[in-house]
Known about the structure:
Elements: H1 9-21, E1 26-27, E2 36-38, H2 41-50, E3 55-56, H3 60-69, H4 77-90, H5 93-98, H6 100-121, E4 124-125, H7 126-143, H8 149-171, H9 184-206, H10 215-221, H11 232-263, H12 265-279, H13 288-291, H14 293-305, E5 312-316, E6 320-322, E7 325-327, E8 332-335, H15 337-340, H16 360-365, H17 384-401, E9 402-406, E10 425-430
Parallel strand pairs: 2-8
Antiparallel strand pairs: 1-2, 3-5, 4-10, 5-8, 6-7, 9-10
Amino acid sequence: xxxxxxTGGLLGALNQVQxxxxxxxxxxxxxxxxxxxxxxxxxLDHILRRNSDNYTRxxxxxxxxxxxxxxxxxxxxxxxRVSRDIMQSGLSARCLQEMGDEMLSSMTTAVExxxxxxxxxxxxxxxxxxxxxxxxxINPVFFGSxxxxxxxxxxxxxxSTALRGAMRxxxxxxxxxxxxxxxxxxxxxxxxxxxxxxxxxxxxxRTRPRDGADLMTRMLxxxxxxxxxxxxxxxxxDVIALFFAGSETSAATLNWVWLLLGRHPExxxxxxxxxxxxxxxGPPRREHYRQLTYTQMVIAEVMRLYPLAWMLGRTAISxxxxxxxxxxxxxxxxxxxxxxxxLAEFWKRPLEFxxxxxxxxxxxxxxxxxxxxxxxxxxxxxxxxFFTQEATLVLATMMNRYHVTVLNAVTPSFTWTMNPSERVQxxxxxxx
Length: 432
């Protein structure tokens, strides 16, 4: 099935550029904002790998976001390296294995709670419920369960509010910060609530023994190269970035999963068969992830069609040339995985939902940068392994326990956070 989109603003302009360029480097003209649009894997390889030192995340797009996430994991230079190293170690396979039992127990409890609530209340909001499940999973991994669940949900709402306000700025990066804009008040309100929730938790944790494996503990114990501990602001900003990447984006992807499976019952049936074979009615276990190969393919295909990081901003430090196109120093480049994932040169019938694109043989035969839902290069998402495990096991657990029905046919329409324009409603009925 071909999936139509209602697009406008920046994404609509990107689509028009793609229609004319078919992967070539083109100029996006939106008033004073006129970046070069880059989507071909060969050009992305040049920017993100072969000549990555020449391309920084210093664009106005990133600066607008850093009002919320700071200069740590979303920044550059020494502060970014410190944050990256801490998060890479905390989200490594070994560390996730250490925390696996607690994470999976939280997942099982959250899925069971959702089933009971659906029986009692009727149709549920897919995005809201996926957020609740994800919050239960990430609380022990990210925060060491220091934040009560109700506060975790409140934190998510505040981060989302602040992010929407920041995104207004990102959509018009040429407008100076001194000029008031719609969304500024919401940004300040959301950011204030985030700090109100997080700072007391961080300050209290500094006074307690810190020997946990969770990411907040690792940041509290982290130091700069000169031995200085990370500041409370640095930790708070990194936790916000983590929470957005691990909560908002994970839940949004799972929301798209249900929407697409509702439109493709034959694919949903195959996911259910695999979940029944692997989980066999029991709780999810760490070893199940590797056995859920088709479910992993479904998650990958959803992220191809609807990548949460659908545009990455870069700025050229020095003059460069990409495939014959001059790139003067100071040029802003808009790298778009969303467009890359729809290039007919690399994807047959690119608008169709087809998990078979992600068999091992198909992946090996494809250009390595034809698919980059987590970015690529030094700044690629450090949590991609955690996310894929989480999403795969959540989907399999729900399919093994419930008949899931999608009530409404939603037309995809992108916002900055890549959620459908309408709420997806689910009904869950226990199986057997």
